[in-house]
Design a protein that fits this description.
Order of helices and strands of chain A: EEEHEEEHHHEHEHEEHHEHHEEEEEEE
Largest sheet of chain B: none
Shape of chain A: elongated
Number of helices of chain B: 12
Helix content of chain A: 25-40%
Radius of gyration of chain A: 24 Å
CATH class of the largest domain in chain A: Alpha Beta
Distance between the termini of chain A: 49 Å
Order of helices and strands of chain B: HHHHHHHHHHHH
CATH topology of one domain in chain B: MetI-like fold
Number of domains of chain A: 2
CATH topology of the largest domain in chain A: Rossmann fold
Structural class of chain B: mainly alpha
Strand content of chain B: under 5%
Strand content of chain A: 25-35%
Helix content of chain B: over 70%
Largest sheet of chain A: 6 strands, mixed
CATH superfamily of one domain in chain B: MetI-like
CATH architecture of the largest domain in chain A: 3-Layer(aba) Sandwich
Oligomer: heterodimer
Number of strands of chain A: 18
């Protein structure tokens, strides 16, 4: 197969066990690795790059086995957390480093082209500590590409960048991946980054692979609360949490619809109204918070805490303490952890 | 208009920044005075012409040569043996590491007379190891090698511990990035680890050297006199600290102060030279860029 194939990757870091992890990526495909803190995302990247032993793993690139090779022979453009820029070298010194190691005669020409392409020409004599976060990211990208890698591993791209710098770099990485169509694995903490770059998604939880597939599959079968929150759900309930609110009619209705990992309610699909009727539930407003395109209403349905989005609209805002009604169309509900993700709305 | 960062006029509260710098400056300044005033008293006690006279005195020159030669060899040994140990302590996990740490720290807490006595007992010509050292051409008792041995014993810990701190401070992700870019472990050590740890290693080496030159306790037992041996043709002399002590014991306070001033000037010159070279980035391995 052309591309990256990973089968049965297992590794250990102290008491933490990761795996087994399996996935495959075609040239130019980007896999976004998701998961809560401590789930093993960085460990996975370090094992793929060859810094952690994974004796049982099969890792191959375009049919060539990599797992037995040391890190320096894996032809990987690895950008670790914190970028790993050489602090004692200038921008030029950093980008030329992989070519110096290989004693490449065309080092200077190649590096000049890369610096120009990534807008680093004017910064080549600066040291990493004098650069902004976005500039440092671009240096890391240029250096990784200078090594002429055949695949890319990127731990938390855009960490610590402001939104403008992040979007600029997302565009730059997107266009760079178009010019260099390499199998790429990124650890993504932010949904915006994951969804703009990733075509495949791998979700880790406590070292175990809980999901691997496309965004559509992730939307249809979110495996757990983390995935639901990553997809934008702000109302996520475990089965135990639903049990804890016996007085709530909504909780009682949701209980049989919940999957093994619970149920999630999409904000954007929940409707707010005042009329009583079948398919509507009481909602007591507690607080109102502004959000980018309207208001976030925090309250509860007979004790079950809920958040509801109200788009910006003319008319007075309800006051805290007001009793309202909500309706839940079927597309608002997501079963977590079981097959057939979308649940039916309670009638 | 009053600047918002300043206290309003008439405020009785000093600004936080004033308290934050004046108090430490007074306390720290007192310590600096304590460091400098005795030195000032020392270098002004003997007139400059007496210091110059001592600088050409064959007895002082022999003692200084032995001390500088021995401290140079001791420094080279401390670096050659101590930097790898510092690297292991910083970068590797192994059983018994805390014990090894204690062993490295031991010479720093041991009275140096005790260290001299211990080395004497191990290396005296009457002991099997001492006899073996004599057969190999490295007699220890009252030779240059004895001076070197004492110096390494009392000073190498600084090189080990400073190197360890320096290696520990090198970000592991930088090393991993370098390897994934194609560098072998050896190339990473040469092109990344050592340049980044360089300042810490130099700082430790300077401390080691200073400690070695200022040693006296161990010499009083093992190398009060230094007789000619393979590396030192003679005449019979003693390490400079012992030489100064002898002058003092004989009541020649001016002579002791003049030789001490000479030693202070040499140490100061060396420290300034290292700072100058370091500041200019003139050491090739301290620079990073191979291309202009």
């Amino acid at each position: 197969m052309n591309g990256l194939l990973v089968r049965g990757l297992e590794t250990q870091l102290g008491n933490f066990l990761l795996g087994p992890v399996d996935f495959e990526l075609r040239p130019g495909e980007v896999l976004a690795v998701l998961g809560p803190s401590g789930s093993g995302k960085t460990t996975l990247l370090r094992a793929l790059a060859g810094f952690l032993p994974a004796p049982a793993a099969s890792i191959s690139l375009d049919g060539r086995p990599l797992a037995i090779l040391p890190p320096e022979e894996r032809a990987v453009g690895y950008v670790p957390q914190g970028l790993g820029l050489l602090p004692h070298r200038t921008v030029l010194g950093n980008v030329v480093y992989p070519l110096e190691i290989r004693s490449r005669p065309d080092a200077r020409t190649r590096v000049q082209t890369l610096l120009k392409d990534l807008g680093l020409d004017g910064l080549k004599d600066r040291y990493p500590r004098t650069l902004s976060g976005g500039e440092r990211q671009r240096v890391a990208m240029a250096r990784a590409l200078a090594a002429e890698p055949r695949w890319l591993l990127w731990d938390e791209p855009y960490a610590g960048l402001d939104l403008g710098a992040r979007d600029e770099l997302l565009d730059l990485l997107g266009s760079t991946l178009e010019t260099h169509p390499l199998p790429t694995v990124i650890v993504a903490h932010e949904p915006a980054v994951a969804f703009s770059l990733g075509r495949q998604f791998l979700l880790l939880q406590a070292g175990r692979q809980r999901f691997q597939g496309s965004l559509e599959e992730l939307r249809r079968h979110p495996p757990n609360a983390f995935a639901a929150r990553f997809l934008g759900c702000q109302n996520v309930f475990s089965r135990e949490e639903l049990e804890r609110h016996p007085a709530s009619r909504l909780a009682r209705e949701l209980r049989p619809l919940a999957g093994p990992e619970g149920i999630a309610l999409f904000l954007r699909d929940m409707r707010l109204g005042t009329g009583e009727g079948p398919g509507t539930w009481p909602f007591t407003l507690r607080t109102l918070l502004p959000d980018p395109d309207g208001w976030l209403l925090r309250g509860d349905s007979e004790g079950l805490p809920l958040r509801i989005h109200r788009p910006e609209a003319p008319g007075p805002l309800p006051a805290p303490g007001t009793g309202l009604r909500i309706s839940l169309p079927s597309e608002a509900l997501l079963r977590l952890g079981g097959p057939g993700a979308t649940a039916h709305a309670p009638e | 208009m009053t600047s918002p960062s300043r206290p309003p006029p008439g405020s009785r509260l000093p600004s936080r920044s004033a308290w934050g710098s004046v108090l430490p400056a007074i306390l720290g300044g007192s310590l600096i005075l304590l460091f400098l005033l005795p030195l000032l008293a020392l270098v002004t006690y003997a007139p400059p012409e007496e210091i110059l006279q001592e600088a050409t005195n064959p007895g002082v020159l022999a003692s200084l040569s032995v001390t500088l030669l021995a401290s140079g060899i001791a420094l080279a040994l401390s670096l050659a043996l101590g930097v790898p140990l510092g690297y292991l302590l910083a970068r590797r996990s192994f059983r018994g590491k805390p014990i090894l740490h204690s062993v490295v720290t031991l010479p720093l807490v041991l009275p140096h007379l005790v260290a001299g006595l211990a080395i004497l007992l191990l290396f005296s010509p009457a002991s099997p190891i001492g006899a073996f050292a004599v057969r190999l051409g490295f007699p220890v008792f009252e030779t240059l090698w004895g001076v070197v041995l004492v110096m390494v014993y009392v000073s190498a810990s600084y090189t080990v511990l400073s190197s360890e701190l320096a290696f520990r401070a090198v970000d592991a992700s930088v090393l991993e990035a370098a390897r994934s870019l194609g560098a072998t472990p050896g190339e990473v050590t040469a092109s990344v680890t050592l340049p980044l740890a360089f300042r810490g290693i130099v700082a430790g080496a300077l401390l080691s050297w200073s400690r070695a030159v200022s040693e006296i306790g161990g010499f009083l037992i093992l190398a009060y006199a230094v007789y000619p041996s393979s590396l030192y043709p003679g005449p019979v002399t003693s390490p400079i600290s012992v030489y100064i002590f002898n002058l003092y014991q004989l009541g020649d306070l001016k002579g002791a102060a003049a030789v001490s001033s000479l030693l202070v000037l040499i140490a100061l010159a060396l420290f300034l030279a290292v700072r100058f070279v370091e500041g200019r980035g003139a050491l090739p391995w301290a620079r990073g860029d191979l291309l202009p």
